[in-house]
Design goal:
single chain, 148 residues, mainly alpha, two-stranded antiparallel ribbon, 60% helix
């Protein structure tokens, strides 16, 4: 499984949004600039997030985006599904012959199904707030680091 660039950028932008917006609307260009993401590409990412109800957008001079779901309730799973659809590993193709079907069924049951179950558990257990807090911890730790 590979997390797409669209999902990676979406996660980065949502962490940024959760840190800077509160109840105010943030201009997408500012989010794009802070995260070194093309504003045009980020607009496409936010279109998917808006359709899924994760963010709310307002047009106009005072417009921008804000979270529509509290960060502690928004899971990574929901974000990935909103941006890319399913993140599950695709099912094993079943060959025509019985030997091939048995081998494929074994691969499906013992590897693919188990990986999908564990991935789902993991991604549903991590919230946007967890990502935000981890980032803040990282920033706090690294500010105190200096080298001679």
């Amino acid at each position: 499984m590979k997390i797409s660039k669209k999902c990676r950028y979406g996660l980065r932008a949502l962490i940024d949004l959760s840190m800077h917006s509160g109840t105010e609307y943030m201009v997408l260009g500012n989010i794009a600039e802070r995260n070194n993401i093309s504003p045009q590409y980020l607009e496409q990412v936010f279109a998917g997030l808006r359709r899924a109800g994760i963010v709310k957008g307002v047009k106009g001079s005072q417009g921008g985006y804000r979270l529509n779901i509290p960060p502690e309730e928004l899971t990574v799973s929901e974000i990935l599904v909103a941006l890319d659809g399913s993140y599950q590993i695709e099912p094993e193709e079943m060959p025509e012959d019985s030997h091939g079907r048995g081998v494929a069924a074994s691969i499906q049951q013992l590897i693919i199904d188990r990986m999908n179950e564990q991935m789902e558990l993991l991604l549903k257990s991590i919230t946007l707030d967890d990502l935000r807090r981890n980032y803040l911890d990282y920033e706090e730790y690294n500010q105190d680091m200096y080298y001679i």
